[in-house]
Structures are given as structure tokens and as C-alpha cells.
Design a protein that fits this description.
- The chain is an alpha+beta fold and 452 residues long.
- The protein is 28% helix and 23% strand.
- It is built from 13 helices and 24 strands.
- Strands 2, 6, 7, 8, 9 and 14 form a 6-stranded mixed sheet that branches. It has a 5-stranded antiparallel sheet with strand order 1-10-11-12-13.
- Helix 5 runs antiparallel to helix 7 and helix 5 packs parallel to helix 8.
- The longest helix has 15 residues.
- The termini are far apart.
- The N terminus is likely disordered.
Amino acid sequence: MHRRFIIVMLALLASSNVLWAQEQAPLPGHVIEEFGPRPSIPGGPLPATVYKALGEVLSIAVDQAAWNPADNATFDVLTKTGDPRLVWILTDMQRFTWRPEFQLALISVAENILGANFEGPRQRSRIINTMIAWDMPAYPGYLEHKRSVFTKYVPGWEKILVEGDIAWHLVDWGGVNIDSRPYGTTEKPCNCIPAADNPEVSSAMQADWLDDEDIVFGIVINGEARAYPRRIMEVREMVNDTLGGRELGIPYCTLCGAAQAYFTDRLPAGVERPILRTSGLLIRSNKVMYDIETHSVFDTFLGKALTGPLADIGLQLEQTTVMTTTWGSWRAEYPETTVLVEALALGRDFNLRETRDRNGPIFPVGDVDPRLPVHEDIVGVIAADGSAVAFPQASAVAALTANQTVSFKGVKLELFAGGLRARSPSGEELTSHQAFWFAWSQFYPETLLWGE
């Protein structure tokens, strides 16, 4: 009788709207010091009354003209829950609102729920940074609500905002539309970041528009070298290319300071080459790329398919080395190199590192590993044993220039072609690329750090 009573009670509780507290891993000390202690996090679904109120607020976000700022009853329902998980959708709505009073109402609810004051500039970003730092989950059914907001304003996202191995609550809008142009339509106008497919190249001798000190990203495949000028990559952010007989997808996340190269050929039988594009979305200030053929979303930093048919088969793209160097150094080492033509820059020269990014990340990143400054350049390497290892770029160059050895956890760095190359103890080249510290450390939270 007693056992039956327990079973019945558990069934009733499971079918009710009782919210159970979720257990989260303890926060690191630096997170508590910067963002404060994490509030209690309920578990389970939202109560029906809250779900209804949230639906009403979402309808306001879609049709703000029909909203009366004096009507706060619905917002009061959300505030009284004290459920911090709701703040994710509130900040989503803030991103797209065009009415200042609606923006203020959403911020007020978020502040009241979190019991914090975010007065001052960039309120929304500071709220999201806090939520990320606290490792705050989303509530069940969140993605459906996010889709209703995001797809109202940017057509094309409905095909990629689907369930998968991705924390959609961390995904934000970067301010541009999705690049959904078919493969090869490189010059078709769009309010997007336009990828370059099979870009036109020239010889080094013909590239008289480049100065020796201009930054390029150098790639060598099967002995064939090519330079991708940063000036072009800041405009395109994605190149689908063929080099040394291999097909490549080359994303450059300007926000992360990271150019990477993935092989997009020699895939499992029946899998077509993914054509990579920029979605216009960001996750912790890292661009979200996707395949225009299957609409599968990829982790840009790791090369792993997270949603769609390519995630279903567990596709993981193999990475190859990208060397950040100067045009003069690269050309001296590889006089037969080819280089993307100037026209691909579309007449633009952003130099984002010295302008937009001078004062730190402009989009939320959450907490950052305090071992290095947020925007310090590191060379990231995956060691032979699978460990992630980071080398502060400036320190490593200084040590090598002084004829010191830079070796750590089975990775040895050497100066080469004006950049840094990684090798294993046996002399084999290890895949590496440069990135800002905040980006590398958030995607490899267990990374080892040389010189620590």
C-alpha cells in the first residue's frame, strides 16, 4: 500500500507544473567574483499560466504596434516566477524590438527576475554575459519561442533553427542576414556576409596591391601554397576553395581572430560536399556556419555538425593548419604561392582588429578564462594525445627569436614563414591556427597553457 501511494504521488507530481531545482556544477571563483552567486534554477516545464503569459509577450514582440505600455499585468506574471531561465527569451526579444519602451519593459522584467541592476551602457550584453557565466539553462520549449521571434525578422533561419546538439539559448544575432545564395553566385547582392566560392587567384608577382606587412592566412596542401589576405577574409568570412587537389571550407571569424580550414571532401559514402555559409548568427561571439545543401549547422571552431542530416551521421570535418603571417614573409617562403585577387575585397578595407575590436568583444562571451587577457593572440594546437594546448603568440615568438625552445605537452613550436608552426616530438606537423584567447579557451575549456 505504501509503495503504491508513492508511485501515485510521483505520477501526480510528474504531470503537474511543480518546478524542481536543477543541480548545476559549482561556479569557479572568478565567475562568482565578477558576476555574483548563481540564483536557484528551477527544473521542469513552465507552469501553464506562465507559458500563456509568455505567449502574450511573444505576440507583442512580433506585433509591437498593438502593445499598450500601460498594460503590465502580463509582465508581472513573468516577474513573479523568479525563474531565471525566462531571461533568455526576454533578451532574444530585446534584440529585435524597435520600440524603446518595450525594450525597457523587457529589461525591467529581466532585472527583477535576476535581482540585479544592469544600468548603464550595453545592458542587454551584460545580462547575457551574466547568464552565460552562470551556465543558465533554457526552459523546455524554449527553441519554439526563439524561432517565433528570430524567423519573424530574418527569412531563412526557419531551416536551421532546429533541434540538435547545440545550445540555442547561447545563440544571438550578429546583425546581418543569412547567406543563402546558391553555390557559385559569389557576386549576387545580399544583406549578408558574402562567401566566396572558387575564388579567383593570381600569382605572387601579380599581387602588387599587397604590401609586405599586410596580414595573410597561409595554407599549404600537397605542396600547393595559397595566401588568403585578411583584408579579403574580413569581408567574405567564408571561402569554399580547392587547393592541392583537396576541397576546403575556410571560415574566418573576425570576432574571434581565427581563420580555420576544413577539408570538405573524402566524406562518408553518399555524403555530398558541404558548401559552407555564414548564418548571421553567433554563439559566444563565434560565427555560426551552416551547409546550404542540407541546412546542417556546424560548430565553426570545432568543425562538428550539430544539427541536420550531417549531425545525424556524426560528421566531423578534418582541420588543417592555417598560418597567420605577413605577405612578405609568406611570399619569400613560397615564391610560387597563389593569392586571392583584390577584387574579392569588394573595395573594402575594414581592419577590424584596430577599430571595432580595439576595446574588447562587442558581443556577449560570458566569463573568460582569467589566465590571459581576452584578446591576446594565441596559437592553438591539438597535441597527439588529443589535448588542447595554447601558446601566447607574442611570448612564443620572443622566446624563439632569442633561440629558446618552445615545447610543451608534446608540442614544439618553431618560427616558419613569418609565423609559428607546430610539430610533434617525432617531427610531424600538428594542425594549428591563431585565435583570440577568449575564443580558444571557451571552446577548449580544459586547454593547457604554455608558460602558465
